[in-house]
């Protein structure tokens, strides 16, 4: 098992006048990703897919305020008061000593604690060394590839940054040689190395971001709506690159998309999200790729819409 997410909850705040209100967008998320597989994560816009990507990539930290915990407790224990449970919420260190066997203690503990394991170790980025080692193995590709590139740097300089900062390859000629080899592999013209991101097409920008990933040679890549802004032919071309990486370089992928047809074509498993929760999981094999996968109403509705569009 490469990645394991346990009991992940997250909220953001809405602001109204002088007050802020927590809104939960991830609710008790649990899933695993195994070595050398591509797992699809699909759902409607706003279901929490990209938030999961950013949390797994350690770009944001999970946030679950006490007010939402109290709300959960109230729903779960409607016949009990919250007064006796406040010490548990406010003092997480003493909750088991105070209420060692209570259901409330277990509920609060589960709500407050989450785990994200990578290679069977909990992710803890406490130092620059930890961050460097983590991002050598884990990379994320976003939907807006041009915005992912530094507009003030040339394409070459954008690609040199990870080589220098993560792999600590400082020799310019060695950097250039590795980059040119990758450009040949991805069928990118060498002349754009000296151009700026604003001067290239969206398809070229996406390939450059892929090249930046390949330069680092990570074991796990998160694709956050990476193909959404591309036409059908470009989507197929980009996904074939990822499939080749999966087979030849043994990469593992979490593919976040709203395109069920693309997920069914390339993924080994698909997780379906709705309103911040994973509601269904579908396993794919060669015999199932053209068949209905989901039992839930949302899954069947999404499949029907995609089949109509084809």
From TrEMBL:
<keyword id="KW-0067">ATP-binding</keyword>
<feature type="domain" description="ABC transporter">
    <location>
        <begin position="3"/>
        <end position="300"/>
    </location>
</feature>
<dbReference type="InterPro" id="IPR027417">
    <property type="entry name" value="P-loop_NTPase"/>
</dbReference>
<dbReference type="InterPro" id="IPR003593">
    <property type="entry name" value="AAA+_ATPase"/>
</dbReference>
<dbReference type="GO" id="GO:0005524">
    <property type="term" value="F:ATP binding"/>
</dbReference>
<dbReference type="GO" id="GO:0055085">
    <property type="term" value="P:transmembrane transport"/>
</dbReference>
<dbReference type="Pfam" id="PF00005">
    <property type="entry name" value="ABC_tran"/>
</dbReference>
<dbReference type="InterPro" id="IPR017871">
    <property type="entry name" value="ABC_transporter-like_CS"/>
</dbReference>
<dbReference type="InterPro" id="IPR003439">
    <property type="entry name" value="ABC_transporter-like_ATP-bd"/>
</dbReference>
<keyword id="KW-0547">Nucleotide-binding</keyword>
<protein>
    <submittedName>
        <fullName>ABC transporter ATP-binding protein</fullName>
    </submittedName>
</protein>
<dbReference type="GO" id="GO:0016887">
    <property type="term" value="F:ATP hydrolysis activity"/>
</dbReference>
<keyword id="KW-0813">Transport</keyword>
<dbReference type="InterPro" id="IPR050319">
    <property type="entry name" value="ABC_transp_ATP-bind"/>
</dbReference>
């Amino acid at each position: 098992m490469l990645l394991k997410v346990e009991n992940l909850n997250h909220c953001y705040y809405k602001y109204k006048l002088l007050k802020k209100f927590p809104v939960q967008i991830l609710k008790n998320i649990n899933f695993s990703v195994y070595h050398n597989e591509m797992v699809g994560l699909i759902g409607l816009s706003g279901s929490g897919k990209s938030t999961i990507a950013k949390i797994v990539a350690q770009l944001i930290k999970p946030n679950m305020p006490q007010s939402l915990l109290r709300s959960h407790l109230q729903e779960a224990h409607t016949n009990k008061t919250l007064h006796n449970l406040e010490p548990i919420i406010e003092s997480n260190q003493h909750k088991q000593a105070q209420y060692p066997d209570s259901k409330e203690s277990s509920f609060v503990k589960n709500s407050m604690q989450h785990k994200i394991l990578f290679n069977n170790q909990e992710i803890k980025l406490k130092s620059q060394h930890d961050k460097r080692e983590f991002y050598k193995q884990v990379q994320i590709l976003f939907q807006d590839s041009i915005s992912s590139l530094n507009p003030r740097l040339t394409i070459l300089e954008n690609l040199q940054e990870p080589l220098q900062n993560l792999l600590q390859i400082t020799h310019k000629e060695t950097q250039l040689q590795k980059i040119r080899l990758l450009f040949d592999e991805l069928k990118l013209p060498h002349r754009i190395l000296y151009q700026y991101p604003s001067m290239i097409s969206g398809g070229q920008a996406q390939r450059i971001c892929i090249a930046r990933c390949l330069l680092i040679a990570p074991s796990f890549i998160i694709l956050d709506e990476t193909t959404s802004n591309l036409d059908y032919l470009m989507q197929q071309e980009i996904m074939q690159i990822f499939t080749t990486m999966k087979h030849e370089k043994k990469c593992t992928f979490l593919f976040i998309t709203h395109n069920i047809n693309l997920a069914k074509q390339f993924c080994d498993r698909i997780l379906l999200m709705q309103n911040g929760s994973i509601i269904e999981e579908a396993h794919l094999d060669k015999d199932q790729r053209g068949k209905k996968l989901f039992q839930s109403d949302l899954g069947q509705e999404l499949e029907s819409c995609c089949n109509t569009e084809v």
